[in-house]
Amino acid sequence: MKPETLALRSTHPTDNNASAVVAPIYLSTTFERNQNYELPHGFLYSRAGNPNRQQLEHALATLEGGTEAMAFASGQAATMSFFQALNPGDHVLVPDDAYYGTPALLQEVFTRWGLTFSKIDSTDPGKIEAAIRPETKVLWLETPSNPLVKVADLTVTAALAKTYGLLTVCDNTWATPLIQRPLDLGCDVVMHSTTKYLSGHSDVLGGALIFKESNELSGRIRQIQTLGGAVASPFDCWLTSRGIKTLAVRIKQQSANAAQLATFLETHAAVERVHYPGLPSHAGYEIAQKQMKLPGAMLSVQVKGGAAEAIQCMQKLQLFTRATSLGGVESLIEHRASVEGPDSLTPANLLRISVGLEHIDDLLNDLTQALG
Ligand SMILES: *Cc1c(COP(=O)(O)O)cnc(C)c1O
């Protein structure tokens, strides 16, 4: 089946008593044993497993081409559970432009538990190789990246990691499995903040890990999930599954809108630079053409001038909601340097846009008036 069909069929209910076309929400925290004291459906207690979570995990594994998935209460809970499966002394390579929470978890939580990490430029395989140490265990990737929308070559970097015996994890939040499937390109694990495109409506937090193979690592993380309890609730799983049903049409339209906005902005007199992997001027364009089916719906724009000019443009916009996060049906805009604080390396004149499903003409008109 094609991904569009899989997104629908993998979220279709398989087990219910009423022939419902949409899955019921199983709020029950506990599950009855039969007279022989067996668990007829395999569910014991909701922290260990729940029908809504099982269905979402099945859908995520199917869409990413993995054997197994685990759904967590947030993207950060998924990342945290992955790092908890490592051993003290292990070393992790993390992109210098990763989602801020990933290195923040390593720095604030896991260095105290004996993990070490180095930041790398994930678009430069030579620099990745130079940063590998005897104790390096994991190459963490995130492509396209935040906020410069840089593209790392998944095939090349995952192959490099394999020659050194490293695990490769790809945070696929910005692309989604409808755009790229890291497990097909050699990665071992995919991480998602399902809060973003997969659920798609800015109304539910969630995260996931998807595994190419079921092995000791996936078993260990399943154990951490069950014992640690950072699981997604039945309703959150249900909402995320509902979002997945329309992922294909949303991502195609949002990506088409983003491509038009990027082209418009690139030639605008008030714009210094546009970062979007669908533009031939983008450094990652060739790799994006090779590994992404669409360039996605995230772009960044550097307005001519400094922070003041960028913020002024943002303030004039009517249809781009000033809020953090991304991946919902509504367009959002954010001045990243303000959000990231004084240590930010993000250019002061940069605005990050999550392009939504509004009509392209309305979005273009709004940007035209705001850029003046
Ligand atoms: C939002 C985000 C996360 C964190 O996910 P939460 O659901 O907010 O915990 C991780 N990685 C990327 C790329 C994100 O955009």
Automatic annotation (TrEMBL):
Gene Ontology biological process terms from the UniProt entry: cysteine biosynthetic process via cystathionine; transsulfuration
Name of the protein: Aminotransferase class V-fold PLP-dependent enzyme
A GO term, aspect molecular function: cystathionine gamma-lyase activity
Pfam families per UniProt: Cys_Met_Meta_PP
Lineage: Bacteria, Pseudomonadati, Bacteroidota, Cytophagia, Cytophagales
InterPro entries reported in the protein's UniProt record: Cys/Met-Metab_PyrdxlP-dep_enz, Cys_met_metab_PP, PyrdxlP-dep_Trfase, PyrdxlP-dep_Trfase_major, PyrdxlP-dep_Trfase_small
GO cellular component, one term: cytoplasm
Keywords assigned: Aminotransferase, Pyridoxal phosphate, Transferase
Domain of life: Bacteria
Keyword Transferase part of the UniProt annotation: yes
Similarity-based family: Belongs to the trans-sulfuration enzymes family.
